[in-house]
Queue: 2 jobs
Job 1
Amino acid sequence: MSRIASVLLPMPLPEAFDYAEPDGMDLIVGDHVAVPLGPRLLRGVVTALRDGAGHNRPLKPVADKLADPPLPPNTLAFVQWAARYAVDAPAWPLAMALRGLRAPQPKPQKVVVATGMLPAKDTPARTRALEAVERGAFSPAALAAEAGVSSSVIKGLVGEGVLAIELVEVAAEFAEPDLTLPPASLNPSQAAAAKALDAMLAEGGFQAALLDGVTGSGKTEVYLETVATALAADPTAQVLILLPEIALTQAVIGRFAARFGVQPAEWHSGVAPPRRRQVWEAVAGGRARIVIGARSALFLPYRKLSLIVVDEEHDGSYKQEDGFIYQARDLAVARAKLEEGAVVLASATPSLESLWNAEQGRYRWLKLSARHGSAQLPDVTLIDLRETPPEHGRWLSPPLVKAMVETYQRGEQSLLFLNRRGYAPLVLCKACGEKLTAPDTDSWLVEHRYTGRLVCHLTGFSMVKPLACPHCGAKESLVSIGPGVERVEEEARSLFPEARIAVFSSDTVMEPDAARTLIAAMEQGEIDILVATQAAAKGHNFPNLTLVGVVDADLGLRGGDLRAGERTFQLLAQAAGRAGRHEKPGRAMLQTYAPEHSVMQALAAQDRDAFVEAEMEMREAARLPPFGRLAAVIASGPDAVALEAYVKALAAVIPNAEGVEVFGPADAPLALVRGRRRKRFLVRADRNVDLQGFMAAWRARAKIPSSVRVAIDIDPYSFL
Ligand code: ADP
């Protein structure tokens, strides 16, 4: 036997399988192959090739080498690194790396061409059609429109053989960015930051920086120039910009298109599969040089990834919570390391982890402390709801309504921020007190009035709102408790019947196009009052927006998990940061029942440093991240007895390790989801502990019953 190929298969196996390489197949690492497993042929990827001499166990041969472009070695190394990091099977990150390749090829398109034959008889319409066909590659319908003739004219000419229809592959356009376009003229602090980032790129090798600038300070302009430098330094360099929201992608793509004269490659769930296939191939071929996308864009097969920018790096949506569990910000740093490239983390409210890394000197720390131009940071005031509560059954307090009136009268825009989708977060029977939940699930049903349904945001279950209580049967007894964006919109409409009001949440704006339209309307001042969840709180620039009202500033603090304070501070500082981004001064008003809370005080004083310092002290005392590390084990299953036995067995075999504490098992706060009971352990470890090694060793010590599913969550963000 000449060589042995290790092949990673799309199955939950811890390692690659060995096969013999048939003579003449000439495999390379990253090749896609078909290999036999039992009676089946499976697709896999070659992860290693070694000399087969001395190997005395017979191996099955690789059945076939597939024609797809091989995965670059760094992408493969990243897949394997990510699996070890997440304590999960490499098949899952591999599947993510291959997602674009699995998408269907774009369908060939029909294009009308002239055959050179002359028509038997001329009519003015036929002449127009024959003239139009010379002007471009049109489909039959497009040609008819171009020539201003009916489709039967085209059909007739095709029938006579004067025109013909050809099927052509749609060429995927990934034009070279134009690096001769002039850069933005940066203000002095932007220029200083851009210069420092250029110096970092010039040093080469793995480099990391935190671009820490207040909202509206012009971070995007700075990293656009860093991207230009990276692309100019190496004609094969590729850059990746990660963004937390699809809606934000649209705005940033526009700025890249303006700066580089070409549309960057886009990668997220809103991109149609055939297009994803094209993007995948263009990335693998090195033709796509700028990629803008969501967290999964990290797994694309870059040839030479020189720079990764993680914008809004603090954002919780970089954490993928189901399936393959990972934190894209952390993986971005790891990928940059593997690629020996640079990573820039940008935010106005960086995560404590990144601030800590910057403080320790691991990241270069570049600060932009003022807004660009004459724009000022907004005034932030707290509205004490105990002193000035809204009227009964209303959610907007008199001081906020007064500010909205003033804003409206000046012809300026208001944003009402409430991080709750739907109409009401809870529906309760006033006869029996039952809170409506999804079947076999501990999560409340959220009322949506636009659709008239009750929806479980956790499982996706939904039902038409019943007329009688499903529990006691009482009629007309169901009441909606608390506000969601739809209910705040209803209140805003009753207060401002003349105003143009819109709602922005993932339910009302599901398609990227709809988001684009809504954002454009807001930018152009076609909306007076926007009621929005966090989808609109991030990154956008609305020039005429001068008032941000936070309906329930305390909302995020109630859960009480480790990151509640940090998350609330970040979200509200970002939301407030939407106000007054251009010449007109802005203000933000936060409705709260706890104005004395340290988070509220820090927001009102706009004193991020004070907040960070207090939070860091607390974390350090408890040795929580970034001073220690956390992991969770979530075991779930439909069979309560088997689940209980498993977590007991697991608790009995906790490895003895210094610097590690294990808490649990406990019922998860959401103890029942889709009929599966859930139990959790929480692990806290000192920073010098090999936490992944500990978790893998521990899990291997107890046999997992077939009805139980075990997930390991490294660095958990959700404690449900
Ligand atoms: P950030 O990402 O820090 O919130 P942006 O990059 O979105 O800030 O910049 C805020 C606003 O200021 C944008 O409208 C942007 O176009 C403008 N801006 C920033 N820097 C400059 C500059 N150097 N010249 C002109 N306009 C700028």
Job 2
Amino acid sequence: MPATQEHAASASVNAIEPRHNWTRDEAEALFALPFNDLIFQAQIVHRQWFDPNEVQKSTLLSIKTGGCPEDCGYCSQSAKFETGIKATKLMDVDAVLEGARRAKASGASRYCMGAAWRSPKDRDIDVVVEMIKGVRAMGMETCMTLGMLTPDQAGRLKEAGLDYYNHNVDTSEEFYGEIITTRNFEDRIETIRHVQDAGINVCAGGILGMGEEIGDHASMLVTLANLSPQPQSVPINMLIPIAGTPLGEAEAVDPLDFVSCIAVARIMMPKSVVRLSAGREWMTDETQALCFLAGANSIFIGEALLTAANPELSKDEKLFRRLGLKPMPAHACPSAI
Ligand code: SAM
Ligand code: DTB
Ligand code: SF4
């Protein structure tokens, strides 16, 4: 039995199960704890469901870059802002599969493919279905993020074998309108429901550092934790400020507030994999170590995210050695379908 399953199996006797009735007051009370008490609680929960030294590795590829009609204030790929990103067409299936082969050789267990669409057209689904089948045939888990989906499109992705669909709520419902005007919070939740109904694992999280308050972090985590089931994967991104976007000059989030948000996510979503997502290129090893201590157990590896930079492989390998971390095997998340 892989270490994680063994750990989860032995831990599950007394382990805390996810709850779906979190209140904002309860979440805010967790954020208000002294830092050491918060991290201690997060560690207790983390060890009930996971091997604390295992970290899942995913690699991202932008399969269709730029020219997006949405106005997400953080995004390099919106056609509404001058960011210097050139719009491209949807990539060929073979080129995507070549990228997946390289990612697997570098140690990634999941390949995440992202497209700068508001929502895919049905003919786009014909192509991405081939990408899913090809990546799965290599023995990797698959993830896609393609914008809003209809129930029928979600069903087609499931049929092709898609393991995860990423659709972030990005921030709190209260703050959402400050960042995006071309769709609303409920649109995001609706697509997440379609993905859940199709039987695909959900990857949903958000971004910190867009000018929101700690109360917005609490509110966002309440939304995520009260989804039923909870998202199996929860990416917490640190904003990468992109010149030319409305958030290009945003003030950096305090690294300790970022760590605290990871800890609260871990406590509220005990069986989910929490991903220390965008922004690692700008974090010290010490901040990342605190994130792992707070319960983060997934990262993106490889030099690029979608359009922005990520740490070099050799740097991450060194970090894993320094911290005694090992890769989490595929299909080891205790809440995954
Ligand atoms: N178009 C699809 C969508 O919006 O769902 C998929 C791609 S979109 C780029 C995926 C996610 O990346 C966003 O929801 C956001 O949370 C994150 N993201 C985008 N730009 C970012 C940035 N500059 N810094 C941090 N996270 C970012
Ligand atoms: C997520 O939460 N973060 C990833 C993934 N899901 C698709 C994307 C991060 C994008 C960072 C900015 C860029 O590369 O353009
Ligand atoms: Fe488009 Fe997604 Fe970027 Fe928003 S986050 S502008 S939907 S690519």
